[in-house]
Amino acid sequence: MSVTLTHAPESSVPADLAKLLSIYTQFADHFGLEPSPVHDPAAAARSLTQVEQWMDRIDQNIQTYQLRLLTQSSALGDSGEKIRVLLGRYLDKRVKSAADRGKIDFLLAHYFGAQAPKGFHTREVSLADVAEVLLPIIGRVSRIELEQNPKLEELVTALADSRSLEELKDRAIMDRARSFKAGLGNDYLLPGNLVACTRLNYLLRRRCSELMKSDLATIEADLDQLAMMGEESVDCTAANLSAIEPVASVKEICHRWQAPRVSEYGTETPYAQVLALKKAVARALRKAESAARGVAEESEAMNTNLEAQSNSATADAAASLDPAAVRRMFEAAWEEKTSQLQAALVSAESRQAELAEKVRTLESEIEVLKAELELQQETPALAVPVVVDPAEPEEPVTAASPQEIRPEVALDKPADAPEPAAVAEPEVPEPAKHATRMPGSGFNPSPQLPEAVRRSLDLCIKQIEAGLAHLEKSKERVGAINLTFGTLPVPLSAPEVRAFLDPEIPFSSLIRDAAAAKTYVLYAATQKAKDKGQNLASAVGAAQTLANTIESWLNAANGADATMLAQVRTELSSVVQQTSN
Question: Is 382 helix (H, G, I), strand (E, B) or coil?
Answer without folding.
Answer: strand
